[in-house]
Design a protein that fits this description.
Layout lengths: L24 E3 L2 E7 L9 E7 L7 E4 L3 E8 L1 E6 L2 E5 L4 E4 L5 E6 L4 E8 L4 H5 L5 H12 L1 E5 L4
Antiparallel strand pairs: 1-2, 2-3, 3-10, 4-11, 5-8, 5-10, 6-7, 6-9
C-alpha cells in the first residue's frame, strides 16, 4: 500500500549514506532534519532527527497509513497511547502501530531530541510542508495524510 504522495516507481531504494547532521527547518512546532525521505528509501520508511522545545506537545492523534517509532536521544518525553502514559528517557523507544491514538509531550527543564520513524514512507510530505498552526495541521493531516487529530493530550 502506498501513502499519498508516493509513486509506484519509487519502490526500488538505492544505498545512501548521511554523514552530516543536515539542514534543520521548522515544521509542526519543532526543528527537523530529514534523514530518510520517501524517495531515498523507495517508499519503505521515513526517518527524522527532531529537536522538540521545552513544553512541546503533539495533539492526541491517530496515523491510519503508517506505524510510528520514536527513539529518545536527549531529554525526556511523556508518551500517551490509548488510556496509558509513560515517561521515556534517553535510550527509550516508543512504538505506536497505525490506528492507535497517541502523542507525546516534552518533560523536564530542557528540549528533547528524538529520532522519529514512520513505516511505510510518506509522512515526510506533511513534515516538508512546514505546517505552522494546529488548525492548518488538522486540515492538512486529515485531508491528505490519513491522520486524525483527536484533541489535546490528557494531563
Amino acid at each position: 500500500m502506498l501513502n499519498r504522495g508516493m509513486k509506484a516507481g519509487l519502490l526500488q531504494a538505492k544505498p545512501y549514506l548521511v554523514r552530516e547532521e543536515g539542514e534543520r527547518f521548522q515544521s509542526l512546532g519543532v526543528l527537523v532534519s530529514v534523514k530518510a525521505s520517501t524517495e531515498q528509501t523507495g517508499g519503505g520508511f521515513n526517518l527524522f532527527d527532531v529537536i522538540c522545545p521545552i513544553d512541546f506537545a503533539t495533539p492526541l492523534h491517530i496515523h491510519y497509513a503508517e506505524d510510528v517509532a520514536v527513539f529518545v536521544i536527549e531529554g525526556a518525553i511523556k508518551c500517551f497511547w490509548g488510556d496509558e502514559k509513560e515517561r521515556a528517557g534517553i535510550g527509550s523507544l516508543f512504538f505506536q502501530p497505525r490506528g492507535t491514538p497517541h502523542g507525546f509531550r516534552v518533560e523536564g527543564d530542557g528540549p528533547a531530541r528524538i529520532l522519529y520513524m514512520t513505516v511505510p514512507a510518506g509522512f515526510d510530505q506533511l513534515v516538508l510542508q512546514g505546517v505552522s498552526s494546529t488548525r492548518n495541521l488538522k486540515l492538512t493531516a486529515v485531508a491528505r495524510h490519513k491522520i486524525e487529530i483527536l484533541g489535546p493530550l490528557p494531563e
